[in-house]
Amino acid sequence: FAAETDDLLQNAQSKLERKNLDWIAANTVGVPGRGFQADTNAVTLYARTGEVVDFPLTDKKTLAEQMLQTIFCKKG
């Protein structure tokens, strides 16, 4: 995860490359209804291949399920 307060895209892509990841989930913290102290979140997945997948604000359990489905469906 890349939890960021600014420069979301740049910081997430930097972390993706630096840590040699296949995917990174990036979200903006400090926004009401998102992040650490909320029951909901919105995330953007960035892939090493350049693919970008946006997930709108939803509850964290649903978000996790959607993210896992996206990542594992893309692997096959």
Written description of the protein model:
There is one protein chain. This protein has a four-stranded mixed β-sheet, with helices on both faces. A hairpin with a 4-residue loop joins β3 and β4. The chain is α+β, with helices and mostly antiparallel strands and 76 residues long. The protein is 36% helix and 33% strand. It has helices at 8-18, 60-75; strands at 2-4, 23-28, 40-47, 52-59.
Give the strand order, joined by hyphens, for the main sheet: 1-2-3-4
* Helix run count: 2
Q: Helix share of residues? A: 25-40%
Query: What best-fitting shape do the alpha-carbon axes yield?
Result: flat
Quantity of strands, as a count: 4
- Main β-sheet, in a few words? 4 strands, mixed
Q: What is the CA–CA distance across the termini?
A: 22 Å
- What is the radius of gyration computed over CA atoms, rounded to a whole number of angstroms? 12 Å
User: What is the N-to-C order of secondary-structure elements (H for helix, E for strand)?
Assistant: EHEEEH
Unreliably modeled segments: none
Classify the beta-strand content into a percent band: 25-35%
Which whole number gives the mean pLDDT? 90
Q: Indicate the multimeric state.
A: single chain
Class inferred from helices and paired strands: alpha+beta
